[in-house]
């Protein structure tokens, strides 16, 4: 049964609508907005409930021209993530009602939190790569706002910026991967598609996609790009550094972000892409490229961040590192081939969400009621918070992987998969199960350390700790109860009375992350009843952990003493950002110094360099005329130019006359040579000189403008240039242009004279060095323009495809006009003209505003 | 042929325009922009692909096959009028800058006062 | 601008004679634009140039009091010469006319700014008995109209209004 499109759209749209309504609702309800938001989340949970039992894709066109759709796909994995996002969302929002009491910026908080949840639902359900990317980046954006909730605190700003920088940068890598997938899909499916799942999608044709990726040599590239995106989002080593800082957010946000949203997006992506990259015949123990990449990444993260968690001094920091560690576990699970890997990943997503959300909420209660989050200052809390202690026990034993609590079963699957992989390949690959155990020992250690906050001696400085309000206690209790149910399901499962619906659901998730055509296995979990290598691994983990726990303090100090300088990933991040800031400031001061000439220099230089590089890169031939006749106009131009420079120059009258006389003789000589020496007829000469002469005069006028000693002289010579251009238009058969140019030139002269009347006689000089530099730059621009004109005028495209030809032929039959230029302006391209007269109006309005209305605004 | 001269003259005009834009005197900058836009217009007209007579037909649209490129002319026609509007705007802006700041020296306006 | 006081008699006389000529030429350029060189842009700048001539020779005051019949207050009004408001209205109307022709096409179910043209000849059926009716009604009264011309009129108004507003504002300083 395919899902209903309207349910999907309502599910994704509702949180955003709710977010939009929050500011209004806040005016009416005040702090109780939390419960409104929780209701919205509950409605979403209900809508997710409606989707149970359905599977398949629905889509609406979004950008049809690019084949982009708003496509949503429902299967086990999507349902799992959507259930977590909305279900945990209900708990978080309810809890916020108690936690956020009296905090600043609540409307923003609830609106962003709802939008955050909506984005996560979008990520879970999206089945079009662009839609997925959109929601993916929306989670980055909303989490940026949430992490930086306390906008005035510099640590919040730092944390928010860091998470944004890392996750968005990762997202961009992912986008490149998506675009490559899109391109490859053209080979695999016949036509390029953005559809990830559903009919005619990439996942449906995973085999063909794999072949195409391999034949294009893009398999590893795409895998790496998607891997970077997922690693950045899911805080995998070495991109995990943003996650511990994210605890700057209010605790409910941390709980949400760490358990059900944001970080789960990366894990989700890995799960979603798993069937695309794993061959269908992959079985537990087989060593695919996918396994090498993701199992290694996951195990590394799991171990490193578990060690870091032991070094943590703050309870939220401990939990943050543990999140990264468990995400590593899930990624490693998805990394292992076959059903064991799928079981690990699918089941641990659920288990982790349950115990981690609980633990964060517990940490929130502790911080809120005890007033500190320092591990060393806390202890013996069970006396004051007995219920919370019970909740914490269930959750942290689950996190430790102690049977029969929920985390144990998924960790058992991991050990099983790791063992199979190690045993299948033998040799060094036995390191895989060893590393898995090694990392898990640390997981056990910090989990127990967290639990011990509630036991042992209560430090004297810690006064009486108040009981939390019900709104803060109920959500973690509910989540812990669910975690306990999962644990009990394992016990009953051992006696062949499994928790049917749960197993079926996790089975469907598992099915979603298995390649099509993989061996069908149903999901069961239970306590080990026989001695197996993986059961021994679990036992070893707990035994080592228990043995090492008394040394926790020394371990803690030892690891901390090692974390110095370049060993820390944070060192690299901080050094890089600290170095970049002054650099960018320095660059800005050079580029943006408020001087027009600086900007103009950059633009002109960039134009010259880029265009020239383009010509060199494309190895364009510059057509230089060969026949001697072409040099005649050239020679004439040169003569006129030199004459003009002399006349307008600073030479004395006598010298100028002499030079002019010599040049005239030279010009006559050239003419004589052309006629008698080359045999050109005067008629042939006559076709060229007018245009050449006019252009030469225009050039002279241009030179004169540049050398003008006063404003008036410059404007007058500028007019000469304008009139020469008008004559050029006449010679080029453009009567309309010539008419317009003549009249406009007159008007320009009038305006110039009117304004110059008011301006001072400032002519600003520069020293010779700057003049020389500007001169070189100008000559470079001129040279590039000359080249461009030569290259472009020499090109001769197919006459048949010339647009103007069609316009000329259609002019009378279609528009009933003989003046083609006018017909183009008012009929064929009337919309353009419309825009152009709007520009004229705007220029006029701006001038009216600048002058006539100036008194109405502020003046200096 | 003529194109060669045209290329040289356009190059020269662009070079002069650039040179003027880099001056300290705002009025000269306006001239520079004006020269560059004139040169660009000439270049556009030159880029017309068809050769022939004036793009005005006779009678009932006879001779449509033998006209010079009308499209570039239509482009440039509007460019000329808009060029007037923007030149006027630039000038008025200059005038207002002078009124507000008492100078048309870009160096002074940019905050540098030592002339270097 | 008070050039009115120091222009010579020659200038005034020449201006009086040329002004009507320029305006007539401008209007004819506007009307023939569809078939001969001309059109809204050219006619617009020419009309503006004619007004510029009047400003230079007779002064802003003369234009405002004689042509528009407004009171002229060179420095009293903060919003510049009152005539500017008229020009602003003019290019506003021009934009409206141009856009209106586009919207008109939409009323007939065509895309925005679709134009049409038609040759209209009076029927000679009932006047056939008049000698030379074919020539009189078929050729002299033949009228070829195009909606694109309305658009061109809009362009004309915008150009005239815009350029004159600029001239008047700058000249008013």
Automatic annotation (TrEMBL), chain A:
Residues 126-424 form the NADH:quinone oxidoreductase/Mrp antiporter transmembrane domain. GO terms for cellular component: plasma membrane. Residues 65-110 form the NADH-Ubiquinone oxidoreductase (complex I) chain 5 N-terminal domain. Residues 697-760 form the MrpA C-terminal/MbhD domain. The chain crosses the membrane at residues 6-26, 33-52, 72-97, 109-127, 164-184, 218-241, 290-311, 318-337, 349-367, 387-408, 428-448, 469-491, 531-550, 599-618, 630-648, 655-676, 688-705, 712-731, 737-756, 776-795, 834-853. Its main location: membrane. Residues 770-851 form the MrpA C-terminal/MbhE domain. It is found in: Cell membrane. GO terms for biological process: monoatomic ion transport. Pfam families: MbhD, MbhE, Proton_antipo_M, Proton_antipo_N. GO terms for molecular function: antiporter activity. Keywords: Antiport, Cell membrane, Ion transport, Membrane, Transmembrane, Transmembrane helix, Transport. It is a multi-pass membrane protein. The keyword Transcription does not apply. This is Multicomponent Na+:H+ antiporter subunit A.
TrEMBL record, chain B:
One of its GO terms (cellular component) is plasma membrane. The keyword Flavoprotein does not apply. The chain crosses the membrane at residues 6-22, 29-50, 70-93. InterPro entries: CPA3_antiporter_subunitC, NUOK/Mnh_C1-like. It is a multi-pass membrane protein. It is found in: Cell membrane. Keywords: Cell membrane, Membrane, Transmembrane, Transmembrane helix. It comes from the Archaea. PANTHER family: ANTIPORTER SUBUNIT MNHC2-RELATED (PTHR34583:SF2). This is Multisubunit sodium/proton antiporter, MrpC subunit. It comes from Haloarchaeobius iranensis.
From TrEMBL, chain C:
One of its GO terms (cellular component) is plasma membrane. It is found in: Cell membrane. The keyword Repressor does not apply. It comes from Haloarchaeobius iranensis. This is Multisubunit sodium/proton antiporter, MrpB subunit. Signal peptide: none annotated. The keyword Electron transport does not apply. The chain crosses the membrane at residues 13-31, 38-58, 90-114, 153-172. It is a multi-pass membrane protein. Coiled coil: none annotated.
């Amino acid at each position: 049964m395919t899902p209903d499109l309207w349910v999907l759209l309502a599910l994704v749209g509702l949180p955003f609508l709710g977010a939009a309504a929050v500011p209004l609702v806040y005016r009416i309800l005040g702090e109780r907005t939390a419960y409104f938001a929780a209701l919205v989340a509950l409605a979403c949970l209900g809508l997710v409930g409606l989707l149970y039992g359905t599977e398949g894709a629905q889509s609406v066109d979004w950008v049809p021209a690019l084949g982009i759709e708003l496509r949503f796909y429902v299967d086990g994995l999507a349902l799992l993530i959507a259930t977590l996002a909305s279900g945990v969302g209900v708990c978080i929002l309810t809890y916020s009602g108690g936690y956020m009491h009296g905090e600043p910026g609540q409307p923003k908080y609830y609106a962003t939190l709802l939008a955050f949840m909506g984005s996560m639902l979008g990520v879970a359900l999206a089945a079009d790569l662009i839609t997925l990317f959109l929601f993916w980046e929306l989670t980055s954006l909303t989490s940026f706002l949430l992490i930086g909730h306390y906008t005035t605190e510099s640590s919040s700003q730092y944390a928010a910026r860091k998470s944004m920088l890392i996750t968005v940068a990762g997202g961009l890598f992912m986008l490149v991967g998506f675009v490559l997938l899109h391109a490859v899909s053209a080979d695999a499916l016949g036509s390029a598609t953005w559809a990830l799942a559903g009919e005619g999608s990439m996942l449906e044709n995973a085999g063909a996609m794999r072949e195409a990726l391999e034949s294009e040599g893009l398999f590893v590239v795409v895998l790496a790009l998607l891997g970077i995106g997922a690693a950045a989002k899911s805080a995998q080593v070495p991109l995990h550094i943003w996650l511990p800082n994210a605890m700057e957010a209010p605790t409910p946000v941390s709980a949400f972000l760490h358990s059900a949203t944001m970080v789960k997006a990366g894990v989700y992506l890995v799960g979603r892409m798993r069937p695309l990259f794993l061959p269908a015949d992959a079985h537990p123990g087989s060593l695919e490229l996918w396994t090498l990449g993701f199992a290694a990444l996951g195990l590394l993260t799991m171990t490193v961040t578990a060690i870091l968690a032991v070094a943590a001094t703050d309870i939220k920091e401990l939990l943050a590192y543990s999140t990264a560690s468990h995400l590593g576990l899930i990624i490693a699970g998805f990394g292992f081939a076959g059903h064991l890997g799928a079981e690990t990943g699918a089941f641990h997503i659920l288990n982790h969400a349950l115990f981690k959300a609980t633990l964060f909420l517990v940490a929130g209660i502790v911080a809120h009621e005890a007033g500190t989050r320092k591990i060393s200052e806390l202890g013996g809390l069970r006396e004051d918070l007995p219920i919370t202690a019970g909740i914490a026990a269930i959750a942290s034993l689950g996190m430790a992987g102690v049977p029969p609590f929920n985390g144990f079963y998924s960790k058992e699957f991991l050990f099983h998969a790791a063992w199979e992989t190690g045993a299948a390949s033998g040799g060094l690959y036995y390191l895989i199960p060893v590393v898995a155990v090694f990392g898990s020992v640390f997981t056990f250690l910090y989990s127990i350390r967290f639990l011990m906050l509630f036991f042992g001696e209560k430090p004297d400085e810690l006064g009486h700790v108040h009981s939390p309000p019900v709104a803060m206690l109920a959500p973690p209790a509910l989540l812990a109860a669910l975690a306990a149910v999962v644990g009990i399901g394992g016990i009953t499962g051992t006696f062949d009375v499994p928790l049917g619906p749960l197993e079926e659901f996790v089975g469907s998730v598992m099915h979603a992350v298995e390649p099509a055509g993989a061996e069908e296995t149903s999901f069961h979990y239970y306590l080990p009843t026989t001695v197996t290598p993986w059961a021994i691994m679990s036992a070893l983990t707990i035994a080592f952990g228990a043995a090492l726990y008394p040394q926790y303090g020394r371990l803690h100090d030892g690891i901390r003493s090692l974390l110095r300088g370049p060993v820390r990933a944070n060192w690299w991040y901080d050094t890089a950002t600290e170095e970049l800031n002054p650099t960018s400031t320095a660059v800005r001061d050079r580029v943006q110094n408020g001087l027009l000439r600086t900007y103009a220099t950059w633009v002109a230089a960039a134009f010259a360099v880029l265009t020239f590089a383009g010509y060199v890169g494309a190895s364009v031939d510059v057509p230089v005329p060969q026949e001697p006749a072409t040099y005649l106009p050239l020679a004439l131009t040169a003569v006129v130019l030199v004459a003009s420079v002399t006349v307008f120059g600073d030479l004395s009258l006598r010298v100028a006359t002499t030079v002019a006389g010599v040049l005239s003789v030279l010009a006559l000589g050239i003419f004589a040579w052309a006629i008698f020496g080359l045999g050109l007829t005067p008629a042939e000469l006559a076709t060229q000189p007018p245009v050449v002469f006019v252009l030469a005069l225009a050039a002279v006028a241009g030179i004169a403008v540049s050398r003008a000693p006063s404003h008036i002289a410059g404007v007058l010579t500028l007019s000469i240039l304008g009139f020469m251009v008008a004559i050029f238009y006449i010679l080029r058969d453009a009567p309309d242009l010539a008419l317009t140019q003549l009249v406009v030139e007159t008007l320009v002269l009038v305006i110039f004279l009117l304004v110059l009347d008011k301006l001072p006689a400032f002519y600003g000089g520069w020293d010779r060095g700057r003049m020389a530099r500007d001169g070189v730059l100008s000559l470079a621009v001129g040279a590039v323009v000359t080249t461009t004109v030569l290259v472009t005028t020499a090109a001769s495209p197919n006459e048949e495809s010339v647009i103007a030809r069609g316009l000329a032929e259609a002019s009378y039959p279609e528009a009933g006009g003989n003046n083609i230029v006018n017909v183009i302006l008012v009929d064929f391209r009337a919309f353009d003209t419309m825009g152009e007269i709007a520009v004229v109006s705007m220029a006029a309005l701006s001038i009216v505003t600048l002058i006539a209305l100036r008194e109405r605004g502020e003046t200096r | 042929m003529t194109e060669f001269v045209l290329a040289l003259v356009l190059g020269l005009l662009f070079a002069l325009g650039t040179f003027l834009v880099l001056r300290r005197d705002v009025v000269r900058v306006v001239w520079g922009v004006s020269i560059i836009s004139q040169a660009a217009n000439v270049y556009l007209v030159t880029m017309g692909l068809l050769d022939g007579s004036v793009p005005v037909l006779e009678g009932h649209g006879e001779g449509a096959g033998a006209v010079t490129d009308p499209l570039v002319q239509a482009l440039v026609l509007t460019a000329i009028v808009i060029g007037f509007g923007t030149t006027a705007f630039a000038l008025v802006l200059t005038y207002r800058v002078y009124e507000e700041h008492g100078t048309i020296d870009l160096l002074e306006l940019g905050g540098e006062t030592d002339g270097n | 601008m008070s050039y009115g006081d120091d222009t010579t008699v020659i200038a005034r006389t020449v201006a009086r004679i040329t002004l009507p000529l320029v305006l007539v030429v401008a209007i004819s350029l506007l009307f023939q634009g569809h078939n001969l060189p001309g059109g809204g842009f050219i006619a617009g700048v020419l009309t503006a140039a004619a007004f510029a001539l009047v400003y230079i020779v007779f002064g802003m005051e003369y234009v405002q009091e004689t042509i528009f019949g407004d009171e002229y207050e060179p420095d009293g009004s903060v919003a510049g010469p009152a005539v500017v408001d008229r020009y602003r209205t003019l290019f506003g109307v021009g934009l409206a006319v141009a856009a209106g022709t586009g919207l008109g096409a939409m009323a007939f179910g065509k895309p925005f700014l679709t134009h049409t043209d038609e040759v209209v000849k009076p029927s000679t059926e009932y006047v056939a008995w008049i000698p030379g009716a074919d020539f009189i009604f078929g050729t002299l009264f033949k009228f070829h109209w195009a909606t694109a011309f309305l658009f061109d009129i809009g362009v004309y108004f915008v150009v005239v209004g815009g350029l004159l507003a600029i001239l008047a504002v700058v000249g008013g300083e």
